[in-house]
Amino acid sequence: MSIVSFGRALRSAGALLAIGASALGAQTSQGTISVRVTEAAGGRPLDQAQVVIVGTTLGGLTNADGRFTFRAVTPGNVTVRVLRVGYSEQKKPVTVAAGQAASLEFALTEVALTLAPVVTTATGDQRRVELGNAVASIDAVKVAETSVVRDVNDMLNSRTAGVTVTGGTQTGSGARIRIRGQNSLSLSNDPIFIIDGVRMSNNVGSSNLFTGGAQPSRIGDLNPEEIESMEIVKGPSAATLYGTDAANGVVLITTKRGRAGTARWTVYGEGGLIKDKNTYPTAYTIFGRRKDTGAALAINGCNLPLVSSGFCTVDSVAKYNLFTDPDVTPLGTGNRAQYGLQLSGGNDAVRYFVSGEREDETGLLELPDFERRRLDTLNLPIREWTERPNVLGKNSVRANINAAVSPKLDLSASTGFINLAQRFSLESNATAGLGSQAFGGPGCKICAPNRLVGAGILATPLSGYRAWTPGYTWQEKTGQRVNRFIGSFNANWRPTDWLQNRLTVGNDYTNRVDDNLLFRGEGPPINANYRLGFKSNARTDIRNFTVDLGSTASYTPRPWLSLKTTGGVQYVNYLFELGSASGTQLAPGSQTAGSGAVPGASGSHDAAEDARHLRRAGRGNQRSTLPDGGGAHRPELGVRHELPVGVLSQGVGLVDHVRRVVLPQVGVPQPVPLPRRHRVVGRAAGPQRRAPLLCGDHVELPRRRPAGGHLQRNRQPEPQARALDRARDRF
Fold this sequence. Notes:
- The chain is mainly beta.
- Strand 26 (477-496) and strand 27 (499-518) form a beta hairpin.
- It is elongated, with a radius of gyration of 32 Å.
- The relative contact order is 0.10.
């Protein structure tokens, strides 16, 4: 990002702080409101109920006794609203006098459906009905209690409409996540992830290893037991809230927090076995003779095309399924163990949450018995990655703390550390992979003449495999080690009951080591040099640094009208650095890159800055990856009106028609001239103009009050509006 744009970001931040400081100086004598929330059926105190003053930014959660106290409330008549998952919403009015304390009692009734949940977005916590964009919520705690969840991918899979998760086939492999399908043929279709307000690295295929299939994803690093809730922002509005990178959607993750009350210990554990219950195809082979001479043909010398052409006749057919042969199958029994400890508690001033977990999983791929006998006969070592090529071991530690420094200031800090080590097996798209050998066999375990692996010392029976057996493939080690730290600091300052300022600063740092090793004299005979051995070690640093500063102002001029606006600055700095050393034709017994007769080295560096300015209820983007300060501006207007029960029958209406309009100007034959703030310049394709995706809400007010018991539409669209109607995608 240029110095000029960064300066604009600092000036914007200064303006926001100045507004808050001036508001602080103008405050007058204020009062307090004590709220107690209980369950209507039995009178049990309800903790974690969200209590807010309608039309203001004041609010919080009840403690273990069901109590919460509003401090520094402006004198006058206010309305207090209480929300809790699984209970009906309630509102009560109260009069606050200067220097006096008021109290309210709420008894919530349990309901089967939550009608007014609260969601978290870039503009803060809001009720779902107040949002102008599509947001789906996932109660991570409930999902973890009622379902088998190994990672975040399992938590997202089949939990909400429009989200598709395609998982990998090996332990530790990542998943492909799509929100509302594919959006581009050439660019990334992955959503972005934000954890506790910090942009998170979610690199799919985050590895410098070639496995021919399974690749890890940094989403899989997270521990689902540490997650409180997840919000999924869908559609074009995600780009307005979070910038250009969010065009494919946003997944917001909130980790667990402590609750006021006595210390609460949680100990959990699980274990199990992993079996493959799939049915795999049987291999068939035709044995035949030449039709003219009657001579027997070699294996694969007679096939269906040759039979149909009259070249040969079928003598016999062999079939064999190596997956059902317990002596030959590469599928064994995997195992999984997970155990952890969590501690949470605190008081109204300070709350804490601490957790630690260990997870071990061994995949179901296992060295077959006939391969063990072969290696023992040849006096070759059976290394751990040859015996079990697919394993995962992970440690995760988290510590979160929240502090109410004053009635106007809340501070919180979130820290998480992840350490993992994992190994993968080579798959079908790799020449040495298991799939291309297991599914390409001849259809016979012992053929006549018997088929062998190569020649000389390698002349070992194939036992139904195509060119070599699993022991050759799994002598190559493909492993990864990761150390990852995610930390964030958040401050919420409410100088008045109508203004809330927030600041979030955080960093997601990942150190990754990819290790690929094959000892000399081992591995499959792919070519003349492959069995001479190789070693590759790639070290990668990935960093996502985030600063988010914003202010939200609320104003309620009438009981039926509430206005809210948010402005702020977001800054994201992404850094990717890779250094790799390799060596081929290793010395006997050596396992370092420096011992290779043919050394090699490579590296890469990628950095990007994204400064996002929210102004005039819209968003402007400036990215360092776009030359000449290229960017895009996305205006957005959201209006919501809640009509009380019976208002339609009384013939009173304020908003006649509200619709969302999305106008993607893509595929036009000629460049579309736009103002400079609407120009996007492609980094690789050279300068070109592209029309951004403009989205907003179209609101029409009635020209006259209807006289009957219904709302009457009285609108006359202009020619430009008709053109928009033809192009829009209504949802």
